[in-house]
Amino acid sequence: MKQFTLEEKNQVLENPFIHIHRKLDVLLNIGKLLMECGANTNRIIEEMLKAATFMGIPHDYLNIHISYTTIMVNLLHKERSITVFRKTPVHIPNMAMINAVSKLTWRAFERHYSLTTYERLIAKLDTTIPTYPNWIKGLACALGSAGLAYLYSGDIIAFIVTIICSSIGYFTRTLSGRLGLNEYVGIALGGFGAMISAYAFYSHVNNESLLYVLVCCTLFMIPGVPLINCVIDIINNHILSGMTRAIRTLLIVGSMTLGMAMALYFSPAPAFNFVDIKPHVISIEQVIGSFTAAAAFAVLFNAPVRLLVSIGIGGVLCVCIRNILSVELGFSTPGATFIGAAIMSIIFVKVSTWLKTSSTIIIVPSAIALMPGILYYRFLFDMLHINALNDASLILMIQNGVTGTFTTIAIAIGVAIPNVLAQKYLQKLKEQRMTELLATRHINDGQ
């Protein structure tokens, strides 16, 4: 391999057109990794522009277009134009990967990597970031759903039964994927497996608390990260990406609801869509349930092990604030949820500096405990049975849909509130840091 002198290495990173195709390939790799791992569009563009700065490409030369399944980059300067793109077919949330991409670029600035080194390390990320084994993810899904059942006032029996039923649903969906079935068919089968087992327990065990198993056993399939990202994208004017995420979320929830409806078609359960999930008192069970749900679902999003306790505490913080405002002060669900998410995200921006991680990695999983996924599938479940609804049920269906939508918007805005309030300030700090690090690039020249 050719060895570059220090002068040649610096020239490669300061002249935008030297090895331009390799540089654009690095930008596409970064965008692809982030999109497939659940980053919102603003975050993807920010990381790509940061990498472009490191590689000496002025931002005004670049036009970046992000859609849910394609990353496109155009470099335009005078009469020269180069356009490249890459498809992003797989979408699995991976917080560790998002964190690793950001850290690697900052490390490249600090250690003055050559283009070859930076290119090689970016390419290796896909195989070097560890992921949890499938059985641990299955257990985490079950614990997360059980935590929500406990949060909604279920007892310890409901907690244990929810673990069993959610595990059945998770591994049914996983087996469907390994058999090559369509993703949405697998989700429907997973919902069917979880619900039919939950109904079997409910029918044979005399315990009214098992209604919460029917309500919560499929909640692990609610796509919380895409749901939050779709709202963040839309409010930041990335309409195409945001709407595509929203449609995918609707397809997932709809498939899950269809599977549940199939399970209950011949043996209809009591109207579990009337089960009260709103808090009426503040209790220790809510703390345990919210901690378990946030930390367990963070495993599903591949958050690093060292951050799971912090994420669980974040879930407790935002849920407790929401419940206090709802129970003691009579706030609406969306209003209380917004304040809970906003306070948690503001606090965790500072906490992230102590933990030496990106704030997104701990804020988004923490907010998952607030997700109104149960309202969405109640809404869709009633839609499937709309011909059998009376006036009261029809009104409740509309209330579930409207409350779920506004609550999701409240979570997304609350999560994004630090950037909304201090976007220019935070961007200025990042640009200042990059300028300072670039200024040290020649500090050892001639030595």
From TrEMBL:
**Mind listing the UniProt keywords for this protein, alphabetically?**
Cell membrane, Membrane, Transmembrane, Transmembrane helix
Q: Which InterPro entries match?
A: ThrE-like_N, ThrE_2, ThrE_Dicarb/AminoAcid_Exp
Q: Which residue numbers delimit the Threonine/Serine exporter ThrE domain?
A: 286-420
Give the superkingdom in one word: Bacteria
Is the keyword Iron-sulfur assigned to this protein?
no
Any single biological process term in GO? succinate transport
Q: What is the lineage of its organism?
A: Bacteria, Bacillati, Bacillota, Negativicutes, Veillonellales
Protein's UniProt name: Threonine/serine exporter family protein
